[in-house]
Amino acid sequence: MFAARQAIGTIQRRAFSVSARDASKVAVLGAGGGIGQPLSLLLKLNPRVTELALYDVRGAPGVAADCSHVNTKSVVKGYEQADVAAALKDSEIVLIPAGVPRKPGMTRDDLFNTNASIVRDLAKAAAEHCPKANILIISNPVNSTVPIAAEVFKAAGVYDPKRMFGVTTLDVVRASRFISQLKSTDPASENIVVVGGHSGATIVPLLSQSGYNLEGEQLDAYVKRVQFGGDEVVQAKGGAGSATLSMAMAGARFAESLLKAAQGEKGVIEPTFVDSPLYKDQGVDFFASQVELGPNGVEKIHPVGQITDYEQKLLDACLKDLKGNIEKGVKFAKENP
Ligand SMILES: NC(=O)C1=CN([C@@H]2O[C@H](COP(=O)(O)OP(=O)(O)OC[C@H]3O[C@@H](n4cnc5c(N)ncnc54)[C@H](O)[C@@H]3O)[C@@H](O)[C@H]2O)C=CC1
Ligand SMILES: O=C([O-])CC(=O)C(=O)O
């Protein structure tokens, strides 16, 4: 009886995964870059991905040829500048790491002038060629580039707030790794909640929700390390860019979670920066919190929940900065359509 049920389960899973796999085309825009290359490799290793479209203004065909030799079933194609329509057509997920990274001494906001128009133009192409895809924005400053992409989709009449995501997974990956270093725990079993946005003071780790109780200077140092983890990498790379490998892992994890949810898995929760009702009354239209994913993208946005007074102060500072970052993105998109 048990064996029969197991066999039926296996057949059902196979049948389900075959039909779900048919639709799983993933596009990476900026695939030739520091994040794009390892991200493409990780996606090539993911059996849920059936087709991988790698697009960049330079270098994507080479990355695609290289990835295509990896012995997994998915088909990999590289696309150059003129081919963005073909890269995007039928994509279920579009990851966007296109744009310039920071150098030491720069903030993420210093990237705005260059990356705002790159994200705007790629969002326009996605709105035209795959309006129903899940759009995953990695390009910084995420707090502003996500509102820009949302405005572009609104202007094209195809905005679905459930399918527009800022990728903040790396903040949770870092928060989880850093606490495991302090507490000598297994980082893989840590999942520290991080809310807010993706830059400095807008990154708010909620350690208390994991039952940890750091105090005083140790807590300050932990929070600062999570908020400025990106700077640690920028400094260490000494002008050669920012986090690429850990970001590729984080982006691949988020894409995997979306694919799992699209293929029917329940209870898939990831932190992500989305059009959120949580602080709209304070003029903050986008906010990262725990989000349950489903077949239509965002299934449920979890509230921030119970936090300490210390965390409330962090959140207040976050909301103030975030509001300005979001407004800046919206203003840019409206004035530079
Ligand atoms: N959300 C997050 O947690 C993180 C975000 N980032 C951001 O990701 C972005 C990319 O970083 P890297 O890969 O290190 O930079 P990179 O310079 O190594 O690669 C960027 C790639 O984008 C391509 N590109 C530029 N304009 C394009 C366009 N219009 N269409 C298609 N491709 C285009 C470039 O040719 C290049 O290959 C940066 O803005 C960085 O700040 C980086 C780490 C973490
Ligand atoms: O720090 C940067 O500029 C890149 C980034 O967003 C991160 O590593 O979190």
UniProtKB/TrEMBL annotation:
InterPro entries with a match to the protein in the record: L-lactate/malate_DH, Lactate/malate_DH_C, Lactate/malate_DH_N, Lactate_DH/Glyco_Ohase_4_C, Malate_DH_AS, Malate_DH_type1, NAD(P)-bd_dom_sf
Top-rank taxon, per record: Eukaryota
EC number: 1.1.1.37
Domain Lactate/malate dehydrogenase N-terminal: 25-166
GO MF assignments: L-malate dehydrogenase (NAD+) activity
TM helices/strands, residue ranges: none
Statement: the UniProt record of this protein carries the keyword NAD: yes
One Gene Ontology cellular component annotation held by this UniProt entry: mitochondrion
Residues that, per the record, bind NAD(+): 30-36, 56, 115, 138-140, 247
Boundaries of every Lactate/malate dehydrogenase C-terminal domain copy: 168-332
An annotated GO BP: tricarboxylic acid cycle
EC top class, as a word: oxidoreductase
Keywords: NAD, Oxidoreductase, Tricarboxylic acid cycle
CDD domains given in the database record: MDH_glyoxysomal_mitochondrial (cd01337)
Residues annotated to bind substrate: 102, 108, 140, 174
Family (UniProt): Belongs to the LDH/MDH superfamily. MDH type 1 family.
Entry-linked PANTHER family: MALATE AND LACTATE DEHYDROGENASE, MALATE DEHYDROGENASE, MITOCHONDRIAL
Record's subunit section: Homodimer.
Protein name according to UniProt: Malate dehydrogenase
Protein species of origin: Aureobasidium namibiae CBS 147.97
